[in-house]
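Sequence, please.
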């Protein structure tokens, strides 16, 4: 199963590293990544493969949300089909 991870918050050093480390710790493979910084605001969207994940989706979601809270970011994960349905016009 694939999913989309979104990250939004104030830019600072180490955001990508921390999120990638957390995903790697759960054996989640990053398929694609896009990030930008606009006037100090950091935004990142990642496509990830959960087929070999070591934790259930809910646990992974909670782990990313906890990391976001620690870092002052909004980090969310959605199943790819739900993300796509929400962003189809």
């Amino acid at each position: 199963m694939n999913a989309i991870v979104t990250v939004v918050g104030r830019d600072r050093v180490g955001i990508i590293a921390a999120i990638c480390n957390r995903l790697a710790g759960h054996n989640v493979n990053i398929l694609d990544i896009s990030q930008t910084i606009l006037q100090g605001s950091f935004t990142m969207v990642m496509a990830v493969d959960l087929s070999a994940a070591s934790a259930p989706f809910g646990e992974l979601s909670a782990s990313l949300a906890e990391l976001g809270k620690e870092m002052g970011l909004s980090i969310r994960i959605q199943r790819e089909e739900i993300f796509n349905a929400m962003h189809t016009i």
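The chain has a mean pLDDT of 93.
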